[in-house]
Amino acid sequence: MPVYTVSLIALPAVFYRALLLLSISLGCVPLTAETLKISTLYPPGSAPVLSLNALSAELESATQGGLTLKVYPGGVMGDDATVLRKMRIGQLQGALVSSSTLEALDVDINDLSQPFQFDTLAEVYQARTSFDGTVRERLARRGWHGFGPLDGGFSYVMSQQPVTDLAGLRASKLWLPNTDTIRELSQQIRVDYQVLGIADVLPALETGALDALIAPPSAALTLNWHSRVSYVTGQPVVYTWGMLVLPERSLARLSVDQQAAAHRVLSHWAEQLDEQMRDSNHSADQALRQHLTEVSIAPPSLRSIREELGQRIASGNGS
Asked: Can you list the domains of the chain with their CATH numbers?
């Protein structure tokens, strides 16, 4: 059988140009896909976790296979401080975190997260028209990509006895998340609270170690806290929200075009999830009030709280 050989010298110049273009294009794409390992406290099956899982295929398509995503739900990667440390050393590439976590990144969130700052969600959404872009810019200056905010709804006082003023709150056996913001608030208005993990709250309500808490309706319903309290305030305490944050290096190995595509997909995902969470949190609020009796914080007490917090009291807000 004859053996045929082809001289490379005899190949046309167009072939070499094609090889050159192919090598350049391959050099712009990682040989293996980058995987964003994302941690969150949201449990498996929750809307944020389901949406993150669905996002992986969209990211992979938009980046031509350059980026995929893996979710670690339910706090399996540790608390916020542990997750931040793992992101800094590269064990995690991102996290869906609560707003208070951003303070550990030296990002100011006070524009949206002051206690007793808002009376209605309409006021919140008006504030967010300027805040959302601002907080993402603050994160970027610190070396982080930020996607959100993501709506968490208002937190309210829920209790076994009616709490209608600051004295009642101070007399209660109260649970709050133990964050820097909460500790500062506790000192400002001189309200003590119990330091317990989330899993310990329901048993503490059952035994009487706790008789009040401050939480969003969605959390109270999901964790069955609502079954151990009887009252909920009409006045919101604080607006809760979160963000997906990624250190800049998490996308650094992608090409410029891939980074832009990933940013576009993640931004669109955050907008959609925020709208979905607004609807679900509104439904949770309505459902909670079918189980609990609503009580009002007396206007003089609300005014006193705001004065102690140093907030300007807007005229016409009913306080």
From this structure: 11-308 (3.40.190.170)
